[in-house]
């Protein structure tokens, strides 16, 4: 279980006073929530095994109101948990008992769209997909496309440096930003970057991106928008083993082709998705690739033809090249429904997120298979094969009091394996609370100390999203005797 | 210029040298081959610490699009190893010869520490976007790693980005891991003779807003007395380049007199010159500035600095990067600063004689609340202030 720091008694004791001050900072209906029943929806995020209602929720409607909330919290020493749509799979928005949640969902305006300069200025609570919806009429799109893009908000994307299935070609969030407006822990507003590329001086934009709410509260984002390609089409290739599928991936990249997406599914993932979506996936395959290319129809034909030729060298069980956009959608249908598909087999599952050197895939999948047998828990693997980002979905039974603990231990073992083979703990979901206590596997105490020092430079009192990212041990600001949150299944 | 130079042959020795300097409060000029000494402000330090002896590629996995090399590795050595496998450094950093008169090549560490990117920045990201991992030494001599050797990694704070472009003031890079990509098979350029600068930037915007994947968009303000010339590059497989460059030329034909540079060597040569700012025509004694603004504001920057007598210009990045060359005077600098500020952009005094660059702010000031944070970040990573003091800002 993940431990959370002790609540500050002096903060809990001043609850009424804090709520009143917050109401002055965010006046008007719906600006502050403090009734226990209405706090419920904010007690958890996409890592729903952990729940903790906050002290209060503030829902500011402007950067100025965010600043006012932070000034209140800072003056009293109240911890602050920023929150977008609450879709974090790593518990990045998990509240603390003595913390104020600052929800950005009311800040949902698109402030400016400029097609000549290819940018959009949006508030932090605009959803990822809403940006693309805003500009697609002119043929443009916002590139990073996390699975939760219908719900997740750009402020959260920036804080987690979100990726998606198409980042092999278009990059992650950090590669698609121009500027940010943010508020310091003291409640001062500042801007970094702008509407231009590469502001001179230190790269605050790069440092703030992926900082998981540790450094500042982000309120406005200037993103790059891109003109979409003439078209895109997918193909499916199925192989007799994970090794062979991995070799095919190597050969495609080695030929100089960078597909816009290159997704890998193992046997359990294929079966789960097929049962759910009837996408026509080959059930006799051990591994399957979905490969997507872009360009004019002739260019798609050329690239898919070359990739097909390469795949044919690896004794494929099945090769299916989409001839139409509808066939393309059918190929993607199963993959896009993967979470729902696994959810149907097992209502409770953990979605892990490590990255490995792509050449280590066969070894890693073999070891995950062995661990699956040892733990007695099923796992399905989805893999962004081009960039090495692995998503094992560990299935467990929340009604069995030991099952969740086993699933967590299994997940931790997988992430340790990722680090052991040269990879990392998280490729796109963030550390959050979920992987916080594994940071020592990837970094030395000294290396973590340097990151902590940078955090302290922004937030000397450790009030911003505490208990995330950095282990509690050796962290005086978070209290000497951390308490634990009981898991509902274990209680 | 700095006195004694130390060039350790190992990371461990380099860390000891920094720790020594910190203990004795002796500032260090930090550099690779020192090709960009004339960039930003002169460093006030009696001793120089060079990474030039930390060389060699330590990991190269073409199929994983990953290359690691020690910081002092000359860029041509890396480019050669990549070329053997048909790959390249994505951000296309300029060579230091034409701009700085350097005789030696740039090092990997130097290019990352200055976050220098060429024309492909507009489509494929900056140098810092491809830094997947670093090893570095803090100002107290502590070795640390950040990032890793995989393409997707959000584990902890991204100090790779903080150190990229920090000009050696927050740590000494000792090893860098880059994302690399297949080098495009072909390159072609659509050249468009346009009436004036705004028309040129409109053409670049139209190209960058097309579905053809423009990978370079530059504007030469006066092409040999024949007026402005807009250049748009397409890079990819041969069939794609032929198709897309043709379509682009046809679609832009209404915006100016269009021609196609289909010869791959000619097209590559053209973009090498843009990369190294050769069409800028900077005289040896000139100061050189880079102003970064939203692309459509490029012509307004040009108008403003021309009014102050700065006539040598070159636009890249769709019009958003304005190279400016002219007399190294405080008045000229003030005009550039004012133009950048008016258009909401950033400026860099890229190259200048010591007299000018020691006397003025070579970069914009940090915005209000960040000023205190900067001091604390610097104090955390280099408490004794020994790494390149004064390089970016006076007294920091």
From TrEMBL, chain A:
Species the sequence originates in: uncultured Acetobacteraceae bacterium
Domain (FAD-binding PCMH-type) ranges: 50-228
Alphabetized UniProt keyword annotations: FAD, Flavoprotein, Oxidoreductase
Pfam families listed in its UniProt record: FAD-oxidase_C, FAD_binding_4
EC number: 1.1.99.14
Protein name: Glycolate dehydrogenase, subunit GlcD
MF-aspect GO terms: FAD binding; glycolate dehydrogenase activity
Tree of life domain: Bacteria
SUPFAM superfamilies linked: FAD-binding/transporter-associated domain-like, FAD-linked oxidases, C-terminal domain
Entries under PANTHER family matching the protein: GLYCOLATE OXIDASE SUBUNIT GLCD (PTHR42934:SF1)
Enzyme class: oxidoreductase
Annotated InterPro entries: FAD-bd_oxidored_4_C, FAD-bd_PCMH, FAD-bd_PCMH-like_sf, FAD-bd_PCMH_sub2, FAD-linked_Oxase-like_C, FAD-linked_OxidoTrans_Type4, Oxid_FAD_bind_N, Vanillyl_alc_oxidase_C-sub2
Cofactor(s) required for function per UniProt: FAD
